[in-house]
Amino acid sequence: MEFPKCYWLWKYRSWILMQAIERLSAVVSRTVWEEELELVRMMLHRDRRNFHAWDYRRHVVAQLEASKLGGTSMTEAEFAFTTDMIKWDLSNFSAWHTRSQLIPRLLDERDADAGARKAFLEQELATVHEALNVGPEDQSLWYYHRYLIHAILGAHGQGLIVRDFSTRNRQKYLEEEVAFIKDLLEDYVDVKWIYEALVEYTLTASTLTNDGHRQTSQSLMSAWLKKLRELDTNRTGRWDELEKQIKVD
């Protein structure tokens, strides 16, 4: 394919393949769609961040799972595919995004109990920790880390990894993540994503307790916001608003 990022080429291929479902037997049609999945795999190995190809892959998988093609769930295989692609390129935002979309279904299909869900969460945190230790300047890693934090907090409908976490458990995990991110500052002092995460997560942690902002937290956030103003001058207004919100002098 000469122009792999041309949206309408993918749409046209999809239309042709849908004709196969309508006009060919299920067995033959499934073979055609399986060959298409292999083509997408090859495309993503050539251009692993092509979000058009990632979106098209999700469409192809959905068709292969459908009853018309005698399909069954491919969630485990697709989750493994994201793992392989992330190992190949930690900066693959589309792979991290696809992974986050697969997780709720993956755990439901595994019929994961509370213990299995907690173990899964900790493994995912370990995976993204390993990535952040070598590439904290990569925004895609922070996207996935924030997804896991939201899963812990049950925010934005994403409490689908762990369920029925007590406030104390949520606070414990959040404090551990803040401690991990603080450690990153020992090696990376000029990465704005670190400071932004520290401010956001520390502010969130304070809402889980009744003691408000501790003086030590205010002092630290004042320093972090000062650094953010240096590293991200285009968003000075945002840092000023955060300063007002946390009442930092």
UniProtKB/TrEMBL annotation:
EC nos = 2.5.1.60
Entry's Gene Ontology cellular component terms: Rab-protein geranylgeranyltransferase complex
Q: Which InterPro entries match?
A: Prenyl_trans_a
Q: Does the entry feature the keyword Transferase, yes or no?
A: yes
The record lists the catalysed reaction(s) as: geranylgeranyl diphosphate + L-cysteinyl-[protein] = S-geranylgeranyl-L-cysteinyl-[protein] + diphosphate
The enzyme's main class, written as a single word, is: transferase
Q: Output the Gene Ontology terms for molecular function.
A: Rab geranylgeranyltransferase activity
Q: SUPFAM superfamilies per the record? A: Protein prenylyltransferase
Q: Name one GO biological process term.
A: prenylation
Return the Pfam families for the record.
PPTA
Which keywords annotate this record?
A: Prenyltransferase, Repeat, Transferase
Q: Which family does it belong to?
A: Belongs to the protein prenyltransferase subunit alpha family.
Report what the protein is called.
Geranylgeranyl transferase type-2 subunit alpha
Organism whose genome encodes this protein = Claviceps purpurea (strain 20.1)
